[in-house]
Amino acid sequence: MKRNNLLRIGCGAGFSGDRLEPSVVLLKQADLDYLVLECLAERTIALAQKRKAQDTSKGYDPLLEKRMRLYLPLLKKHNTRLITNMGAANPVAAANKIIEIAKELGIKIKVAAVTGDDVLDKISIHEIALETNEPLYKSGELISANAYLGADALLPALQSDADVIITGRVADPSLFVAPIVHEFGWDLNNHNLVGQATVIGHLMECAGQITGGYFAEPVKKKVEQMATLGHPFADISFNGEATISKVKGTGGIINLATAKEQLLYEVTNPYEYVTPDVIADFTQVHLKETAKDHVLATGGSGKAKPSTLKVSVGYKAGFIGEGEISYAGSIALERAKLAGEIIHERLYNDFNELRIDYIGYNSTHRITFGNTAIPYEIRLRVAAKATDAETAAIVGEEVEALYTNGPAGGGGVRKNINEVIGIVSVLIDRKKIQSSITFRET
Amino acid sequence: MKTKLYDIAHSRAGDKGNTLTLSLIPYDESDYELLCSTITAQKVKEHLKEIVQDEIIRYELPNIASLLFVCKNALLTGVTTSLAIDTHGKSLSYALLEMEIETI
Predict the structure, then answer these.
(1) What pLDDT is attached to residue A41?
(2) Distance CA A23, CA A232 (A)
(3) Is the pLDDT of residue B81 over 80?
(4) pLDDT 10s digits, A107-131
(5) Lower CB count within 10 Å: N or C terminus of chain B?
(6) Which of A42, A285, A317 sits opposite B64 (nearest CB)?
(7) pLDDT by residue (tens digit) across A394-411?
(8) Residue A372's pLDDT is what?
(9) Measured between beta carbons, which residues in chain A are less than 8 angstroms from residue B68?
(10) Among B residues 13-72, those touching chain A with beta carbons less than 8 Å apart
(11) Contact list, B78 vs chain A (CB under 8 Å)
């Protein structure tokens, strides 16, 4: 720790495609002990498994190289350690890549890759998926199965002198719990402290969501300098109290409202927020604004971690074909609806699931709550699922054919085909999981 | 007098599989009691009947003067396989805020 009994952890990315420069600002100006980059959604790891299957040296986050070229010199210069799940399906390959980049940049570095989350060979296709109540094989061909590892899997890496700790599937808050527990020497069985650390991790893990980014709107929730939004850092005391703030001069805002929105984000039971580390209780959390852009979070607690770990299972779910076309001016909605009816008549026999949306009218919420204003322009969107790409392509082709076959004045066709990877979950006995660390040095 | 929830509260949507979570946070903490007494799980279920297929559980969080609605079977199978435009249901926070309530 650079400060006396105060641990400073920044979060520079809340998802794989997040902006690159907020981490640069944090590294240059916040004098962090740790930078955390959370870059791994459920679907992202399944996609990464597919890349690894094609090339065993791949399967890590697609932005890894870009981020490391920017961040490695700053990490070294400011003596900040990096923790990230950008290893995705292949943390060891990611470590190799980081070493390659560090050598190129002339930086001396040690990387620890955390593995053990890949459990595809440990689960049976006959296990029952939590979401469907059916055996896994009924969902489709499995392509990935990754257990959510906890802070314990990262501790040996933190106890080493590694500059970068790169993981695959780790529960998002655990990326923060691990360095907190490590630095303060807490017992992982101290449920209240680990519960509070989980609250800190949960508040931080989506980066710009707590600094007023995804919070903002131009009428009721005005936020300044959105284009240069700062990402957060937390100052954590030995007793778990944490103050969340951001670099002075960056855009955004941190206040009670932004912290409340983030605390409840994606929480399905605030009494029992289950992670591999603890079952955390968010209901007694206290938030307090202590200064401009400073929120103090206290009161997180918890009880013993579950004996099982959640496993995210990716399966092949076919293809989605999409087509869009715009109508504007007089009776735009009627013309779009005529187009939609034509497509429906031509396609409904061939697709089990066919969706027709009128963008600008009722597509996003699927209901308009009595708001019936007719917009000047409408975009027709057609989407359908198929088992193969060729069949999915028919959706876009049919929308494109509206160019000559009508109705009148349709323009701006776009079509695309996406392979669909479905995600379901199973639970696995944590005794079956053995995580390990692989070191790489320049 | 009727007012939209939008005028007195803010919300963020989240997704976990096919479950939608919606926070409801009054701008003025003194409106928390009003929200507790008027915005029941049943009322939200009625408002979002076209969107949420199964039950809605409401959690009260007096410490942060906020409500949380957990809506089961609300995302047309969920983020990876849904045909909807907004597969996460991220925009649905503003669907909740469309609800009208009576204020004095």
Answers:
(1) 87
(2) 10
(3) yes
(4) 999 999 999 999 999 999 999 999 8
(5) C
(6) A285
(7) 999 999 999 999 999 999
(8) 78
(9) 264, 267, 270
(10) 14-19, 21, 23, 25, 27, 47, 50-51, 59, 61, 63-66, 68, 70
(11) 131, 423
**Distance in Å, alpha carbon of A6 to nearest chain B alpha carbon:** 26
User: B-chain residues within 8 Å CB-CB of A220?
Assistant: 6, 10, 27
